[in-house]
Design goal:
Layout: H1 4-8, H2 34-63, H3 70-74, H4 76-101, H5 115-143, H6 167-197, H7 202-220, H8 229-250, H9 253-277
Helix pairs in contact: 2-4, 2-6, 4-6, 5-8, 5-9, 6-7, 6-9, 7-8, 8-9
Length: 279
């Protein structure tokens, strides 16, 4: 268990000094057994693969719900209900697992946010996205000639811009809550392993957990970018470093979630505006 004085002397400058620390990794607010840690990580990460590959895609193919199909065009409400239904199942698995393992300590991860925290998190989402776009364009593409592809969520053309459904906004806002769990749970697990099992300093443990969890998050996205491993690691993985930063600062998933929402929705808004404007 970590003493308050030790934590205070081993903090990064960007961490908000409110006396709070990351949950579970050092036995606060409760200690988790190895069995609970492994169950939490496996179920959380496993829910991503269930959602992305084992359930969602077969259902879409079986029911012909792809965006260019007649069913999707004629029954958009049915498509939305099925998508939200699958999301609901994933959410139930993720959050019920957390609720049970944490001993009903919802606020260990999800804390109240004030306006200042919200503003900083939102601003980082916008600034971080711009930085990564410039880094991708001028460093990866122009200097190292690494090929990147557009996110399938914002790929569009003049006639197909409406294919980015308005429901995508609702879907993304909801889905990003689960995505934050897919990133933060591995971060906490690696933090615990480094700190307790390898007796590393708190700062070193945070850095390693930050890097590994960002790499894992990038690897999640390989199927979304036509198997482009370089983009998954060098673009999405780097993007995740920004997204996790606000969690590191505030110890609150709502902070990294806010950063993620602004990061993802702005490009889609631009694509929608361009599509409806006929550009």
């Amino acid at each position: 268990m970590v003493a308050r004085r030790e934590v205070a002397n081993d903090r990064f400058w960007f961490e908000k000094n409110n006396g709070e620390d990351f949950p579970f990794y050092a036995g606060q607010p409760i200690a988790l057994s190895w069995g609970k840690w492994l169950a939490w990580v496996i179920i959380t990460i496993g829910s991503f693969f269930v959602f992305s590959g084992m359930i969602l895609k077969p259902i879409i193919d079986l029911l012909h719900l792809k965006e260019n199909s007649n069913v999707a065009a004629e029954h958009p409400f049915r498509v939305m209900l099925i998508t939200f239904g699958i999301l609901a199942i994933v959410f139930l698995i993720i959050f019920l697992t957390y609720w049970i393992i944490s001993g009903h300590r919802w606020n260990a991860l999800f804390k109240k946010m004030n306006f200042k925290e919200f503003g900083f998190s939102a601003l980082l989402g916008i600034i971080g996205m711009i930085i990564v776009v410039l880094y991708t364009r001028f460093i990866l593409n122009d200097i190292f000639h690494i090929k990147t592809v557009a996110d399938s969520a914002v790929q569009t053309n003049h006639a197909g811009a409406v294919g980015i459904h308005l429901s995508n906004f609702i879907e993304i806002v909801i889905q990003l809550i689960a995505e934050e769990m897919w990133a933060i749970v591995p971060f906490l697990f690696v933090l615990m392993v480094c700190y307790k099992s390898f007796s590393m300093s708190r700062k070193s443990s945070i850095v390693i957990a930050w890097l590994i969890s960002s790499l894992i998050f990038g690897l999640y996205h390989i199927p979304s970018y036509d198997g482009n491993i370089a983009q998954a690691i060098l673009v999405i993985g780097v993007s995740r470093l920004f997204l996790t930063f606000t969690y590191l600062r505030y110890k609150n998933i709502w902070a990294s979630y806010t950063t993620h929402v602004f990061w993802d929705l702005i490009p889609i808004l631009v694509a929608l505006i361009q599509g409806f404007a006929g550009k």
